[in-house]
């Protein structure tokens, strides 16, 4: 089978470990299947959790998945900020931990429709160049603001007491394109862990823990779990063509 073939066709749910980039895992699946391979949204190297990978002709269905809501759990250090808003960045500032009342007050405006600056270490282009490349060269730029939907933002646990909360664990349900690191920045902290627990109707509990173990899920069954709104992001004739290409290969492991 030639590289970047349209078969086998399928969807892979993968529980990404901390360390490798999302693109490294896309490449690993491509080497296994020798088919065209894509993704429906990346995770930072330090992050863990659900990646939705697309094999073969299923890459044409990416818009159905990219716009789905996401769920995350994150731990945020509230005593310092970093250049990347996560533990991989350089220390920018240290400060006193907020009180629990101050934390609750800071969380309130971060629920609903919010506008937050995109983190400097991101793939957004600034004057034609990726922001993270500018950041690596020490070039400071004013990052654009992105409007995000934060459907739910709940405190799971805290470290400290009422007078000094040094760390908080949050559970979030957000719209596509939301940077959890931006929320950490808005709280005056940085993410020390980040785990994606769901993408739309798909849970990390369904995911394989390695590319080698991952099953290619049937396109037909996977699409059946999506809303009409999500399906309509790809024209019906293209969806039908992908299903036709899947044929007897639909759901078969490579």
Quick recap of the structure?
The chain is 23% helix and 33% strand.
Task: Describe the fold and architecture.
With 254 residues, the chain is α+β, with helices and mostly antiparallel strands. The protein has two domains: 10-68 and 200-249, Alpha-Beta Plaits (2-Layer Sandwich), CATH 3.30.70; 70-199, Pseudouridine synthase (2-Layer Sandwich). Helix content is 23%, strand content 33%. It is built from eight helices and 13 strands. It has helices at residues 22-33, 62-66, 100-107, 131-136, 180-186, 219-223, 228-231, 236-246; strands spanning 10-16, 37-39, 48-55, 70-77, 80-82, 91-94, 112-117, 125-126, 129-130, 145-161, 164-174, 190-199, 202-203. The strands form three sheets. Strands 1, 2, 3, 4, 7, 10, 11, 12 and 13 form a nine-stranded mixed sheet that branches. It is elongated and about 60 Å long. The mean pLDDT is 89.
Tally of separate domains? 2
Low-confidence stretches: none
The percentage helix is 10-25%
State the CATH class of the largest domain. Alpha Beta
- Describe the sheet with the most strands: 9 strands, mixed
List keywords for this structure.
two-stranded antiparallel sheet; 254 residues; Pseudouridine synthase; alpha+beta; 8 helices; Alpha-Beta Plaits; single chain; nine-stranded mixed beta sheet
SSE topology:
Blueprint lengths: L9 E7 L5 H12 L3 E3 L8 E8 L6 H5 L3 E8 L2 E3 L8 E4 L5 H8 L4 E6 L7 E2 L2 E2 H6 L8 E17 L2 E11 L5 H7 L3 E10 L2 E2 L15 H5 L4 H4 L4 H11 L8
């Amino acid at each position: 089978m030639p590289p970047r073939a349209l078969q086998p066709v399928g969807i892979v749910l993968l529980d990404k470990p901390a360390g490798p980039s999302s693109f490294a895992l896309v490449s690993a699946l491509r080497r296994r299947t020798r088919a065209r391979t894509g993704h429906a949204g990346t995770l930072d190297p330090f992050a863990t959790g659900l990646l939705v990978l697309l094999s073969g002709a299923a890459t044409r269905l990416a818009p159905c998945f990219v716009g789905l809501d996401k769920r995350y759990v994150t731990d945020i250090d509230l005593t310092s900020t970093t250049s990347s808003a996560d533990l991989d960045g350089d220390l920018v500032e240290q400060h006193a931990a907020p009180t629990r009342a101050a934390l609750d007050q800071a969380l309130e405006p971060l629920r609903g429709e919010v506008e937050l600056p995109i983190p400097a270490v991101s793939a957004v282009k600034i004057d034609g160049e990726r922001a993270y490349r500018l950041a690596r060269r020490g070039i400071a730029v004013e990052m654009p603001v992105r409007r995000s939907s934060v459907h739910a933002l709940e405190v799971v646990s805290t470290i400290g007491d009422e007078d000094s909360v040094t760390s908080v664990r949050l559970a979030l349900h957000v719209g596509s394109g939301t940077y959890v690191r931006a929320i950490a920045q808005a709280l005056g902290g940085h993410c020390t862990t980040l785990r994606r627990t769901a993408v739309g109707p798909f849970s990390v509990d369904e995911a394989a823990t390695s590319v080698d173990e991952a099953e290619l899920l049937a396109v037909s069954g996977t699409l059946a779990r999506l809303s009409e709104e999500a399906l309509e992001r790809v024209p019906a004739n293209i969806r039908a063509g992908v299903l036709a290409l899947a044929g007897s290969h639909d759901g078969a492991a490579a």
